[in-house]
Amino acid sequence: MLHSRLVVLVLRAVLIVAALWLGVILVMSLPGELADEALAFRIPAQIVLSIVIVCVLVVIVCIWRLLTLLGRDRIFGEASRRWVDAIVWALGIAWSVFAAGALALTAVIFLTPELRDPGIPMALFGMVVLSALPVLLMVVMRGLLRQASGYRSELEGVI
User: Fold this and answer.
1) Which of 82, 29, 84, 78 is nearest to 53 (CA)?
2) Could you report the per-residue pLDDT of 12-31, keeping only the tens digit for each?
3) Residue 74 main-chain phi, psi, to 5 deg
């Protein structure tokens, strides 16, 4: 039990640091990094990256709530399924926005003769594919949670 409490405590600390880091990037770093870019690139990039960061912050809040439910031994209830659903939706939205932004940037690169270079589109393709993994993993985890909740309710009925 002590081991799991330590893991939850460390995870909460990492979640706090990650949320603070993302907040700094969203408010201070991202606008500064994009300030020198052309307005036609800066605004869409700011919107796409801001939506993705906000979605990740939503995921952090949901994980925090799931840890609270875990501590109260209510992880197999309806509330936990709602938080996991929120994670799936946030990750799905972030992935969709990121994929659309990557596709738009790839189109601009390939349609502009001076910019034609396969390096950035290939890197974006890899990032889009890899960023789909957490979404798909959470869909599987949601199914496992639903199945485990059913087993737990059956066990409680037997006992």
Assistant:
1) 29
2) 999 999 999 999 999 999 88
3) -120, 25
Question: What 3-state class would DSSP assign to 33?
Answer: helix
Largest Cα–Cα separation, the chain: 71
What is the four-CA torsion angle of 63, 96, 23, 137, rounded to 10 degrees?
30
Sign of CA dihedral 109, 111, 117, 120: positive
Of 157 and 101, more confident: 101
3-class secondary structure, 1:
coil
DSSP-assigned letters across all residues of 82-150: HHHHHHHHHHHHHHHHHHHHHHHHHHHHHHSGGG--SHHHHHHHHHHHHHHHHHHHHHHHHHHHHHHHH
pTM metric for this prediction = 0.86
pLDDT at 78: 84
Q: Report whether pLDDT(85) > 90.
A: yes
CA 107 to CA 6: how far, in whole Å? Answer: 48
Q: Which of 89, 47, 87 is nearest to 67 (CA)?
A: 87
Give the other-Cβ count within 10 Å of 137's Cβ.
Answer: 12
**Percent of the chain at pLDDT above 90?**
60
